[in-house]
């Protein structure tokens, strides 16, 4: 297994590498001098930055700008394919984003990560690398993230819910836990995150559901594991959020 420090990252505009990680692996908070494109060709990972939490199933990837602190954890065994990209090719150097990964883009990624670190920029390998960069720019964003608060009290609540999305404690219970009134909690939550507590928790549950479905869990077990009272309630919420029922998502 090789890591980014084993490669001369300045040698080429983009360097790819591949790693295999076991279930439960956590790469603690760190950052890179280059932009990073994280793609799991198999398995589901979560990525947490100071302001956002992402869940990345195999049909998606996450773009991290240079210098962005982040922590990566693997829900199950993960086949990770990483691209380190020169900041000159980052069209939005301040934002993280989740991107769709088409079959064509996946094929390009799997090809590029096998290139030597000093591949021929003027030959076939260079042409494939430039095409890969163009394809990344074409990919639409995907809604597999939730914002995270900067207030340490709200951050404790959000972290606990991400750890256990099925936790059904209401606003009164959470606000009491961190020493806030219900009114102050509700106002601060909306001011920091731009949405209500209920909507934020719903998005966390949907992200967790995507992770569990991608890992092969049944729709029924996923519904209860993320806190819904019935599979039908979960299916209705999933359909409203993603435009298709979970059965169609699983089949794809």
For the structure shown, list the relevant keywords:
single chain; 252 residues; alpha+beta; five-stranded antiparallel sheet; 10 strands; globular; disordered N terminus
Coarse morphology:
globular
The residue ranges in which pLDDT falls below 50 over 5 or more consecutive positions are 1-6
Mean pLDDT: 87
Strand order of the biggest β-sheet: 1-8-3-6-9
DSSP strand tally: 10
Describe this entry's structure for a reader:
With 252 residues, the chain is an alpha+beta fold. Helices cover 39% and strands 22% of the residues. The chain has helices spanning 103-112, 124-138, 152-163, 171-177, 182-193, 197-214, 219-225, 231-242, 246-251, and strands at 14-21, 26-30, 35-42, 45-48, 52-56, 60-64, 70-74, 78-85, 97-100, 145-147. The strands form two sheets. It has a five-stranded antiparallel β-sheet, covered by helices on one side. Strands 2-7-4-5-10 form a five-stranded antiparallel β-sheet, with helices on one face. The radius of gyration is 19 Å and the shape is globular. Residues 1-6 have low confidence and may be disordered.
How do the helices and strands line up, and which of them pair or pack?
Blueprint: E1 14-21, E2 26-30, E3 35-42, E4 45-48, E5 52-56, E6 60-64, E7 70-74, E8 78-85, E9 97-100, H1 103-112, H2 124-138, E10 145-147, H3 152-163, H4 171-177, H5 182-193, H6 197-214, H7 219-225, H8 231-242, H9 246-251
Antiparallel strand pairs: 1-8, 2-7, 3-6, 3-8, 4-5, 4-7, 5-10, 6-9
Helix pairs in contact: 1-2, 4-5, 7-8
Would you summarize the structure shown here?
The protein is an alpha+beta fold. It is 39% helix and 22% strand.
